[in-house]
Fold this protein.
Amino acid sequence: MKTENLPCVKVEKRRGEELRRALKELELLRTDARINSNADFIYLPLIRALKEAEKREIGVAELLTREFAVLEQRRSIEDIVGLKPSYEIIGDIAVLTDVDSTVGNEQLVAHALMSLHKNIKVVAKRVSPVEGVFRKRKMEIIAGENRTETMHKENGCKYKLDLEKVYFNPRLASERNRVAAQVRGSKEEIIDMFAGVGSFSIQLAKRAPQSHVTAIDINPDAIRYLRENIKLNGARNVEAIEGDIREIYVKFRNKADRIIMNLPKSAYSFLREALSMLNPQGGIIHFYDVISSYSYAGGEKRKSLETAINKAKEKLTVKIEEACELEHFHSLEILEARKVKPYAPYAYIIGIDAMVKIRSH
Ligand SMILES: C[S@@+](CC[C@H](N)C(=O)[O-])C[C@H]1O[C@@H](n2cnc3c(N)ncnc32)[C@H](O)[C@@H]1O
């Protein structure tokens, strides 16, 4: 810890808080220095020596000089490298997310990130979009240890994962927290159709220990990490199943009180399976999709979040009605539709909670 000799006022403890406020209001207090105290007195560090008039105004007779611990000013990445890179931190790995903006400066950015965040041990960059059935992407290590496996902590849960072998998005943390809050303390049968390493399943299971979660994924690596994460988090009410949901959904007909469908862009093609797994008394679907925010009115192109939300609601309504063979459809209520995160300058990931009732298959 850095220390500095600073001018200060000595004041009896009972007057300490009153004087601290007064000095702060007058912008005379050194807020980056740690206030000293002993049994009877408090020493308040100042940005400069007080003028006689100031002493009178705040009722201080004499000034002292004393050593204070001074907090180090945290430098920003912009101060160090002169640009503001986009990155996200997953466990102890920093991932550069906008590769074009750091071309030619990657090493500089990587070392600056590691010096600013001592917990970062690897800096990597995205070198492909999320692709394929497993929704994986390729990474390239720029600095630090040569690995893409890490342990990420989120909302009180731990997830071991490999950034190149499975899908994981730390920006969905508040969405997972929101859905987990809905099941808190409930006793439900929950199916996570596209579970990945268990990011939704485990959080839901931990908040609702009486519930049972079936977590399905087609990617064997995701299931291997999911099983490890179930143990790591003591989530014994999660059952991991490796397989293609289209082939295994029949085992879960009419079972689910709640279904998570986090497969943006493709989830519509799995609605028939989801609806047949829903409890005929009614169940909730958490549905995610990428929706454009453009609309065309009077020959003009407009962009708004409201447009994206309305489009998402309309599309899901139509697709659910199509997927429920007519004789099975009973009712659909959109409980909530909202932006989960921006996806591109012209699109959002929209999340919809829908209560669907069907007649038993
Ligand atoms: C967008 S990721 C979501 C992962 C997880 N829910 C999360 O939020 O981190 C979609 C997942 O669905 C899985 N998947 C894709 N098609 C599938 C299918 N037909 N049956 C089961 N899982 C599938 C992929 O392997 C991938 O892990």
